[in-house]
Amino acid sequence: MKVMTFNIRNAIADDGENSWKYRKNAVFDYLSKSNAEIICMQEVVPEVKKEMQAFLSDKYYFVGKGRLAEPREDDEINLVAYNKNKFDLKNSSHFWLSDTPQIPGSRYPTQKFWPRTCTAADFCGADGAFSLFATHLDNADPVAREKGFALILGRAANKEKVLICGDFNEEPEVVLRWIPKEYIDLSGGLIDTFHGYGKERGKIDYIFGKGGFRAEKIVCDKTMRSGGFLSDHYPVWAEII
Question: What is this structure's pTM?
Answer without folding.
Answer: 0.96
